[in-house]
Design a protein that fits this description.
With 163 residues, the protein is α+β, with helices and mostly antiparallel strands. Helices cover 26% and strands 34% of the residues. It has a six-stranded antiparallel sheet, covered by helices on one side. A two-stranded antiparallel ribbon has the order 3-4.
C-alpha cells in the first residue's frame, strides 16, 4: 500500500477520467498547466483556485464527443492536486456538469431537473506497474448507468434541436 501511495505521488500511476462539461471543446488534445492553490473558506470548507503561488498542476484534456453546447472529454492527470480537474476545466471556461463548488450553478439546477443528480466526473482508467511483479496493471470502468443514460438524453435532445 505504501509503495502504491509513493507511485501515485511520484506520477507513476496513469489516471484518466471522463467528464461532461458545458461548452464546445474544440481541440482534440490540450495541455492545461496552471498552478493550483488550496485555501479555506471561513466555514472551514476547502477550496482551490488557479494561482501563480500554487503548486504546479498538469492536466491533458482529450475530446471524446462534442455537441452544440456540451462536450464529453477525457482528462489525464499528470499531477494529482486537490480538485485539479474541476478547477482546471472551470478556469478554462468549461465547468463540469453538476459541480456544486466550481460549476455553473444555474445550469446545475436545470441539469438536476433533466435527471443529472450528481457531478459528471468518472474515474475511467487506472494503469500502473505492479509493485512486486512489475507487471503492467490496467483497470477500466465504464460510465455508470445514470451517467450513460444522461449522455444518451443529451444526444437525443441535440438530435431533436439540431437534426
Amino acid at each position: 500500500l505504501t509503495v502504491l501511495h509513493d507511485m501515485m505521488r511520484d506520477g507513476k500511476v496513469q489516471k484518466r477520467y471522463l467528464t461532461l462539461v458545458a461548452g464546445r471543446w474544440l481541440n482534440a488534445q490540450q495541455h492545461i498547466k496552471q498552478p493550483l492553490l488550496k485555501y479555506l473558506l471561513e466555514n472551514g470548507e476547502r477550496r482551490v483556485s488557479v494561482n501563480r503561488e500554487g503548486k504546479p498542476a498538469h492536466s491533458i484534456v482529450r475530446l471524446v464527443r462534442r455537441w452544440q453546447g456540451y462536450s464529453l472529454v477525457e482528462v489525464e492527470l499528470k499531477t494529482g492536486r486537490t480538485h485539479q480537474i474541476r478547477v482546471h476545466l472551470s478556469h478554462s471556461g468549461f465547468p463540469l456538469f453538476g459541480d456544486d463548488k466550481y460549476g455553473d450553478f444555474a445550469l446545475n439546477k436545470q441539469l438536476e431537473r433533466d435527471g443529472l443528480k450528481r457531478m459528471f466526473l468518472h474515474a475511467a482508467k487506472l494503469a500502473f506497474r505492479h509493485p512486486l511483479t512489475d507487471r503492467e496493471i490496467e483497470l477500466e470502468s465504464p460510465l455508470p448507468a445514470e451517467l450513460e443514460a444522461f449522455v444518451v438524453s443529451v444526444e437525443q435532445n441535440e438530435e431533436r434541436e439540431y437534426g
